[in-house]
Amino acid sequence: MCSTAAGAACPDCGSESTRAHSSYLRFPADVPSGGRLVVLQLRARRFFCPESLCARRTFAEQMPGLTRRHSRWTERLRSALAAVGLALAGRAGARLARAFGVPISRSAVLRLLAALPEPEVPAPRVVGVDEYATRKGRVYGTVLVDVETRRPVDLLPGREASSLAAWLAKRPEIEIVCRDRAVLRGRRHSRGTPGDTGRRPLAFVAQPRGGY
């Protein structure tokens, strides 16, 4: 299998090149068929970069939707392994992948998960504020949770009211803050800096202990 495109774009500067340097064979693994691993044989071309100021002299072409740089798998197999990892994590995900014919280590599954882009999360409207300890009695931080979805939003170092006020000032979409009765946070929190009276005040709701 080989590409029929006339050229390719340099991954550094984006310049299109049609001047071939050489070619080589790639053998990316694809989604198994009948419990057996499928391996494709691709002839990839290497091109000269036409931009004289670009630090990359030559580059290898990629086939969009099929290959990526330095990858031993097709994009389809990478997506399938990432889905397995999201459902089962590293060790169990590796066992399932081996069961349908893909030998992979638990560390490789975890690396696939770490390479996934962060999902788009809607801005929270109601946040819960509580403290947590990394060293009980010595080192504390602040955890913020989206109360409506019950998902963590952010972790702040320390538990000072000033750090929370600065965090809230950057997020005008937040309408309600729920706080633990034992957390000494009170109405001193403001949306912005002193003298900033153009923003709508927050509503603070005290919640019983027990988390969100």
Short synopsis of the structure:
With 212 residues, the protein is of the alpha+beta class. The protein has 3 helices and 12 strands; from the N terminus they run βββββββααβββαββ.
Give structural notes:
Mean pLDDT is 83; it is low at 184-198. The chain has helices spanning 75-99, 106-115, 161-169, and strands spanning 8-9, 16-17, 20-26, 29-33, 36-39, 42-48, 58-60, 126-135, 139-146, 151-157, 176-180, 203-207. The longest helix has 25 residues, at 75-99. 21% of the residues lie in helices and 31% in strands. The chain is built from 3 helices and 12 strands. The chain has 212 residues and is an alpha+beta fold. Helix 1 (75-99) runs antiparallel to helix 2. The chain has a 5-stranded mixed sheet with strand order 10-9-8-11-12, with no helix packed on it. It has a 3-stranded antiparallel sheet with strand order 3-6-7, with no helix packed on it. A two-stranded antiparallel sheet has the order 1-2. The chain is elongated and about 65 Å long.
